[in-house]
Amino acid sequence: MKKFIAVFAIVSLILVSPLIFSCGSGGLELSDLTSSGNSDVDGRFQDCKDGKAKAITLPPVIDPEHFSFLWLTDMHIRSDRDDYFDQLGNYSSNVGASFILTSGDLTDDGSSENIQYVLSQENTYLNVPLYSAIGNHDLYSDGWDRFKDNIGPSVTSFSYGNSFFMFIDSASCKIGNDQMEWIEDQLRDSDAPHKFVLSHICLYDGELETPTILCDPDERLRLLSLIDKYDVDFFLCGHKHWVEEDEVDGIEHIMGGTGSPWKHPYNSKPLFWYFQVNGNEVDYSKVHFQD
Amino acid sequence: MKRIAILLILVLGGVGARASGQIEFKFKEADYNFLYRNSGILGNMYLQAGEQVSLHPKWINLGAGVEIDFTDSTLTRYYFEQSLKFTDRDSLVLRLNHFEHKDWEVGENFLNTYYQQNRSRLRWAAGVAWISPVLDDWQNPFKFDTDFDQVRFLYSVSYGWPFYKDKFDFRVGAQNFTQYENFGYDHLGPFAEIGYQLTNRSRIKAMADLRYTGIGTATMSLERQTYLIGLEWKNVPRRPASEGTRWLLKPKSKEEKKDQLKKDKDKKDKHKRDKENKN
């Protein structure tokens, strides 16, 4: 009898402890505790592969060797808060940027109201397209369906001019086997001189590790080895609300801070990054939003 | 390096076994495990073998272990460690771990330093790890690339209790590292272990270790499962079967040890006398 009680106690502890730790997160269901950890990200990857997400339409390439774009992350758009769409629109017009990229957490909660607000702000202020990776906040309120229908795929890649851009889905803090194979295939097949990978979660977050980097150490190492092997130039990420630049083996890992007037980076002011591709060179600079 | 690690284990085992009768040099323990581990991108069967020898009971306790993926032999983990054993229960461990994946051409080294205390039922450990992925020269266990290195806090806490005539024991807990691995914080790693004391010196065990990720993103899910069966051997003094075989959960106090020695001596003397009387 004691044996059965002990077995019962252990099984209960294993199942209950994650529930206790995740109190308030709003993201955990009982099925998450027993099912494979990749089911969500695999499902989203499959949707993207099957063409179920809104297609990306690229602007025409005027000069493949010379173009520019803006990049930012963690905008956390809410219809009841301020945002920086007007400043982004003005800057992109002034410098003639081809598009604006974000590394996820485009909205604060993935709700229909906030997604619609993003679309209306884009129409009002931006004269270039905005493409976004998916962040964990975009998944809240069962946000995936709204994201794929209105914003675009969570996993995609495209070439523009002499550069290759890849958006990967790390919003659940993992990549999964299917997406990892796709990443390798895409990187292998591209011979572009410049390669940019956009991910919400980073592979490195400074000298003291915090719980904000890609969760699985195996996936982290695999991804590191892939971007090293296939000569990726920039790994652009966010999530931590921190600004940091690290160069490892010629790869620039940039943690982009935030682009939100009400969620500032902890070590900086809200900002975006201005990238200029000039032939074999890529220059970039930080631009702080004006308060 | 894998060969060096295996060689070192064999040497430690051989020398230790040969010298196990001496006070200065003691073959202290061995641990052999067979495990199945399934994670997001890796799912394979592994064998682990670890051993520990002592040159000085307090200051020099050396260990080494190796984990081999015998499904496709692309992944190897091994470690070397040194423990300072302040008391039977308290120790400071310094461990150098190495991970390498042949197909990915990437390695990772981490230096774990932690304090651990094994009380009668509660066990805990806390410390820090210095971690460095290695992209070039990835088979080198001593290379720490300072471009990308990180410090990570380590924790382990578990509670165990004996049952059924003290032959079995249960242990449940949570941790973000093991002898062979070092996970991030975003892993909640509950584990449960059941053990059976085969003899005074040996114990078989079965363990389930689950890892949940995505706590920081509030997208939590089961990321990794490890199921393990293993055999532990400890070089503890032999005791009469009537006094039980359990050695894991209840370290003896000094007085108890003295009593035990006295009892053993009396028993030996009695046995000797009986033998002489018989003759």
Name the poorly predicted regions of chain B: none
Widest sheet: strand ordering of chain A: 4-5-6-7-9-8
Rg of chain A is 20 Å
| Helix coverage percent of chain A | 25-40%
By CATH reckoning, the class of the largest domain in chain A would read: Alpha Beta
The chain-level mean pLDDT of chain A equals 88
| Helix proportion range of chain B | 10-25%
> How large is the radius of gyration of chain B?
21 Å
How many E-type strands of chain B?
Answer: 12
Q: Tell me the strand percentage band of chain B.
A: over 45%
Poorly predicted regions of chain A: 3-8, 10-37
Query: Per DSSP, what share of the residues of chain A sits in E-state strands of 2 or more residues?
Result: 15-25%
Quote the CATH topology of the largest domain in chain A. Purple Acid Phosphatase, chain A, domain 2
Oligomer: heterodimer
Structural description of this entry:
The complex is a heterodimer of chains A (about 290) and B (about 280). Chain A is an alpha/beta fold. Chain A folds into 2 domains: about 1-35, no CATH class; about 40-290, Metallo-dependent phosphatases (Purple Acid Phosphatase, chain A, domain 2), CATH 3.60.21. Chain A contains 9 helices and 11 strands. In chain A, the strands form 2 sheets. Chain A has a 6-stranded mixed beta sheet, with helices on one face. A 5-stranded mixed beta sheet of chain A has the order 3-2-1-10-11, with helices on one face. In chain A, helix 4 (about 85-95) runs parallel beside helix 5 (about 110-125) and helix 8 packs parallel to helix 9. By secondary structure, chain B is α+β, with helices and mostly antiparallel strands. Chain B folds into 2 domains: about 1-250, Porin; about 255-280. In chain B, strand 6 (about 105-120) and strand 7 (about 120-135) form a beta hairpin. Chain B is elongated, with a radius of gyration of 21 Å. The interface between A and B is large, with 64 and 55 residues.
